[in-house]
Amino acid sequence: MKVIIDTSVWSMALRHNVKSSDIKSIKKEIFELINESRVVLLGVILQEILSGIKNDDQFSKLEDSFKPFSIEIFNRNYYVKAAEFFNNCRTKGIQGSHIDFYICAVAYLNNWEIFTFDNDFSMYSKIINIKMYKSRFF
Questions:
Q1: Does residue 115 form part of some domain?
Q2: Domain for residue 138, yes or no?
Q3: Residue 20, pLDDT score
Q4: How many domains is the chain built from?
Q5: Number of alpha carbons in the 13 Å side-chain half-sphere of residue 69
Q6: pLDDT mean values, one per 10 residues, the chain (138 residues)
């Protein structure tokens, strides 16, 4: 099954100044998913990863590191489903970003899992039928 790796996971894995066993486990997990050709990169996630990088050289290096991944592009139905998810969760008192619900819609409509450290997705999964990725290494 394909896996959408959320910005929170990429951000943790890309930290160079942290040498914890958790970071090593996250990197190992991502490496395994890449080797299994299971990683899905959404354009909005790439945008979030690259946003806020002030140094042009760092920006270019980071952008280059993601060039091997194709960007998945989806049609109108995905945006409509994201809006439905937003509305369903909001009526149940759960708030979220439009990007989060877009990620949920893409995962749902393709039967993919979401790999994230963002606890908001756990709340969304109580209302909408999304699959959360469970790590093999941590």
A1: yes
A2: no
A3: 79
A4: 1
A5: 24
A6: 97 78 90 97 97 95 96 93 98 97 98 97 97 91
Q: Are 124 and 130 in contact (CB under 8 A)?
A: yes
Distance CA 123, CA 118 (A): 10
Whether 33 is in a domain gets the answer yes
| Contact present, 4 and 106 (Cβ < 8 Å) | yes
* C-alpha span between 87 and 105 (Å, rounded): 12
> Looking at residue 126, which CATH number applies to its domain?
3.40.50.1010
Task: Please give the structure tokens belonging to residue 103.
Answer: 């990620």
Q: Which residues of 79-113 are buried (b: 16+ CB within 10 A; e: fewer)?
A: eebbeebbeebeeeebebeebbbbbbbbbbeeebb
Tens of pLDDT, residues 16-26? 666 678 888 99
C-beta neighbour count of 18 within 10 angstroms? 10
Per residue in 29-56, pLDDT tens? 999 999 999 999 999 999 999 999 999 9
Domain region containing 82: 3-132
CA atoms lying within 13 Å on the CB side of residue 97: 10
